[in-house]
Every structure is written in C-alpha cells, then in structure tokens.
Amino acid sequence: MEGIKHQMVKVNGINIHIAEKGEGPVILFLHGFPELWYSWRHQILALSSMGYRAVAPDLRGYGDSDAPDSVESYTCFHIIGDLVELIDVLDPDVGKVFVVGHDWGAYMAWLLCLFRPDKVKALVNLSVPFLRSHREIKPVDFWRSYYGADHYISRFQKPGEIEGEFAEIGVERVEKELLTDFPVILPKGKLFKRPLDEPITLPSWLSEEEANYYVAVFQKTGYTGALNFYRNFNRNWELLKPWVGSKIKTPAKFIVGDNDLVYHMPGMKDYIHNGGFQEDVPSLQQVVVMEGVAHFINMEKPDEINKYISDFFTQFV
Fold first, then answer.
1. For residue 206, what is the DSSP state?
2. Rounded to whole angstroms, what are the CA distances from 63 to 7, 192, 215, 299?
3. Contact at 8 Å (CB) between 284 and 122?
4. From which residue to which does any coiled coil extend (predicted)?
5. For the packed helices 104-115 and 76-90, what is the interaxial angle rounded to 10 degrees?
6. 0.90 cut: is pTM over it?
C-alpha cells in the first residue's frame, strides 16, 4: 500500500478516517459490510496512476472512523450527511466528485445521488442496484417473510445478539467466513456452513495477510457500528417516504457478479433487466453482469473493475 496517505477529517460532527492517493479529479470509494477502506486497495493504486485522486473513507462505525453509540445515528441521513461534508472538504472549489460504491456503499451512493445530485459527476455502483421502496411492506419484514427468521438481515436486527454469537466464535473466524462465503442464512448455534474446527481455505483473491488486516481492525472495533446500518433498514424506509417514485438522474453504470447473493434476491433479476431499474435511474448507461463472480467483486476482479471505472469516468472528465 505504498504511497497511500491516511488522515482524519472532521465532518458532520464526527471524525472520519480516509485513505487517499493521487492528484486530479476526486473519485470517492464507498465500502460495504464487513469491509473497510482497504477493500478499495486495488482501485486506489490503479486509479491514482491514471490521473485521479482516489479517496476511500471508513464509513462511520467502521475502522478508525468514529462510531456513535446510538443505533439511530446510522440512518441514511447521517451517512449522506457525512458524505456531503466530506465531498466539500475534498473538493472545496466545485464540491462535486466521481463516486464508486459497493454493497452498503452502493446503497448510500444511490441515495447521495437522489438527495444531492449536485455533488456527483457520475457513479459506478457494484453489487447493489437502486432499491425501490415498497409503499406498504417494510424491507426487513419482507425478507423475513421470504427467507425466514434466520436470514442474515433479520439476525442482525437485535442490538447485541449477533455480536454475542460472533464473540463466541471469534473475530478471525467470523471475518474470514464472511469474506470467503457470505451466508444468506445464519442459524443460531451454527452460523456458518462448515464446522468451526474445519480450516478455512481463503479464495484466490484474498491472501492471509489481506484477511488478517480486516481481522485486526474488527478485533479492535467490534461489529456493532457496522451492524447498525442494518438496524436502520426499516427506519430508512420510513424516512425515505417523501422520495418514493423519485428518479436518480446522475449518469450511472452498474456491475454485478452472477454469483452475487444480492443478484439472487427475490425479484432482483427482473428489476435489473426488465425495465424497473432503468425507470428509476433514467441515466443508467450500462448494466454489466460478470460471469463466475460473487459479492466482493472489486477484490475478486480488480483489473476488470478498474477498467470499467476508468472507461466510464473518462467521458465526464
């Protein structure tokens, strides 16, 4: 990670840690769960060498950024508030940047474009498309009705419960399991598919050294801040009611792996490919489905993702 600079930035009343490299137009990289700024290591090095200033924060609750105590401090409004102020710090003259998001970072990037399109030049989002709000059904309730009470989002809802189960297993095992084979179902007493005494073989795209970086950070911070994003799913649904039916007009590109758990959620393929997604994001220029790729797409296929990002943003520089 040679040449990557780290600093703390005060935004929206909290301290946010950012990692950055390069000079030029800013690309803001937003990570997901259970990740960190470090998930963008390949993109930071590649895009900074192409004439961009690549910046990746730890979102609030993660890594070296502040983690407010209350669950209610992790709504979409809090996260977008952090990002808007961060953009103003990174680009004080224009206050407008390129954005790349993955997982929760992608969800927040869509909302950033919805709330403050003046802040984003163009967007590349990975894994999570825009999630259209259903007027009647709360999202956690919908997933619970479809997958059952052991669905990971349902299991993440009660503060302290899953943290206790994770603690019994240990951060090292939990983090490596989540990065290696993210589970859709987390049954109590047997969270993961393989027995706990069975060694984990990391995927080819993740070395022991890289995995241990995540482990060391989450051993220090715990998972509560990160899990609090999930605990605001239903609250966000209520807060977003005024924007139901609104369009995202930022130029956008979307990339997903055909083995991604999100791609296989109920109704997702139909929404992405049969007009709903394009209706909600009229400036969506391209949808790319990468074969043989799962959820952590920017780490699994960094060279391809780097090229997709640079090819798209070049037309807006």
1. -
2. 13, 24, 11, 18
3. no
4. none
5. 80
6. yes
Residue with tokens 């993740």: 206
- Tell me how many degrees the CA angle 65-69-75 measures, rounded to the nearest 5: 80
Q: Which two tokens stand for residue 234?
A: 């239903």
* Catalytic center residues: 103, 230, 295
Tokens of 285: 């220029």
Token look-up 């259209």 returns 132
Q: Please classify residue 197 by burial: count the beta carbons closer than 10 Å to its beta carbon, then call 0-12 exposed, 13-18 middle and 19+ buried.
A: exposed
Q: What is the pLDDT of residues 201-232, one digit of tens each?
A: 999 999 999 999 999 999 999 999 999 999 99
Domain ranges within the chain, ordered by starting residue: 5-134+229-314
Q: In CATH, what is the architecture of 5-134+229-314?
A: 3-Layer(aba) Sandwich (3.40)
